[in-house]
Amino acid sequence: MKTEILTRTDRDIARAAAFLAAGALVAFGTETVYGVGADARNAEAVAKIFAAKGRPHFNPLICHYASADEAFAHVHANPAAERLADYFWPGPLTMVLPRRADCPVALLAGAGLESLAVRVPAHPVAAKLLAAVGGAIAAPSANRSGGVSPTSIVHVLAGLEGRIAAVIDSGMCRVGLESTVIDLTGPEPCLLRPGGVNLEALEAAIGSVRHPIGHERATANRTLRSPGLLVSHYAPNLPVRLNAIDVAPNEALLAFGRELPGAGLGFQLSASENLNEAAARLFEGLHWLDDHARGLLRIAVMPVPGYGLGLAINDRLARAAAPRGVSDQSETP
Ligand code: TXA
Ligand code: MG
C-alpha cells in the first residue's frame, strides 16, 4: 500500500475523512502525539490498527471526538467528568467512563471493556478531521508496537509507511507527550497515565485524585499502566478451552474456519480464516456466546494461527482461558 501524504487543506482533510469512511487508516497530528486513526464504529477498520502497529495484544484505544457533547453521547458523564471537560477540553486529557448501552463504538476499540476512553483533542488538524468525519475516531499513538510515540510526520512514516492509507502533515506536536488518562468509573478519580495535563491541575479542578506513589507505584504500574491488558479486561463468564479439535454438545464453539460439528451453540470468527475479520469479531463473539450459552459448560475455541493479528487474538484467548485470578497477575510488556 502506498501511504499518501496529505496537507491540512479542506480538500485533503475531506480526502482523509473519505479514507476513514471507507475503513482505511489515516495518521493525523494531535497536540500530544500523532495518532493512527480508524472509524471507531467499524470493527474491521479498528482491527487494521492493531495489524499496522504490529501489536501483540489488543489494548483498549482512545476514542477522539470533535466536542464534549459528542463524547458524552457515547459514555455516561458524571459531575467530575463535566468539570474536567470544561477545564481541559479540547486538550491533552483522556477520561475513562462507562460506555452507554447504545454506544456504537466497536467492542474491539475498547478491547471488550465496559468502559471507554474518550478525548477531545485541541490540535486544529485533529479538530478539522473530526468535524469532517462527524463521528468518533479510534486512535492509538502512530508508532509500531514498542516504539516511541511520534511527534512529527517523519516519525510516523518511519514506522508506518506502507501500512496506512494516508498521513496528514500536521506539523510538530506542541505537547509532545501523550494525554493524561484519568479513570472516572470508580468512587474516586484515579490517574492511570500521567501526561499532558498535570496532576496538580486535575486536583485544582476536581479535588483529590488517587495516584500510585513509591512502592505502590511499582505494583500499581503493573495493574494500572495498561489496565486493558489486565484486571479489567473482559473475561467471559464461562470457562474457555483452547485449541479444540472436537466439540461436545454441552459446549459453545468459537469457530475459526470450517466449523467443527456437534456444538451446542456456535459463533464464527471468520469462515474464510481471515485474521483481520476474526480480530474484529473476537470480543463480540465472546460476549455473544456468554449471553446465549444457557446451560452450556464452557466455550471451546478452535485453533487460530499465531502470525499477524493471530498473535494478539491468541494472547487475548490465553487470558480468557487462564485460571481466574492468575491472568490478573500476568504482566505484558
Ligand atoms: O495523547 C494520546 O493519548 C494519544 C493521542 C493519539 O490521542 N493516544 C495514545 O493512545 O497515547 P495509546 O493507545 O497509545 O494509549 C491509550 C492508553 C493506554 O494506556 C490504554 O491502556 C488506556 O489509554 N486506555 C484506553 N482505554 C481504556 C479503558 N477503557 N480503561 C482504562 N485505560 C484505557
Ligand atoms: Mg502508545
What kind of sheet is the major sheet?
10 strands, mixed
The CATH topology of the largest domain comes to: DHBP synthase
Total helical segments:
10
Total domain count: 2
> How much of the sequence is in beta strands?
15-25%
Tell me the span between the first and last alpha carbons: 29 Å
**Structural class, from secondary structure content?**
alpha/beta
What would you note in describing this structure?
With 333 residues, the chain is of the alpha/beta class. The chain has 2 domains: 4-221, DHBP synthase (Alpha-Beta Complex), CATH 3.90.870; 240-326, Rossmann fold. The chain has 10 helices and 14 strands. A 10-stranded mixed beta sheet has the order 1-8-2-3-7-4-6-5-9-10, sandwiched between helices. Strands 11-14-12-13 form a 4-stranded parallel beta sheet. The longest helix is centred in the last third of the chain and has 18 residues, at 275-292. Threonylcarbamoyladenylate is lined by residues 30, 32-33, 35, 59-62, 94, 96, 110, 113, 115-117, 119, 139-141, 178-179, 181, 183, 192-193, 226-228.
Which keywords apply here?
DHBP synthase, binds threonylcarbamoyladenylate, four-stranded parallel sheet, ten-stranded mixed sheet, binds magnesium ion, 14 strands, 333 residues, alpha/beta, Rossmann fold, 2 domains, 10 helices, disordered C terminus
Give the SSE layout:
Blueprint: E1 4-6, H1 10-21, E2 26-28, E3 35-39, H2 43-53, E4 62-64, H3 68-72, H4 79-88, E5 93-98, E6 115-119, H5 124-133, E7 137-138, H6 153-160, E8 166-168, E9 180-183, E10 190-193, H7 199-206, H8 214-224, E11 240-241, E12 251-255, E13 265-268, H9 275-292, E14 298-301, H10 310-321
Parallel strand pairs: 1-8, 2-8, 4-6, 5-9, 11-14, 12-13, 12-14
Antiparallel strand pairs: 2-3, 3-7, 4-7, 5-6, 9-10
Helix pairs in contact: 1-5, 2-9
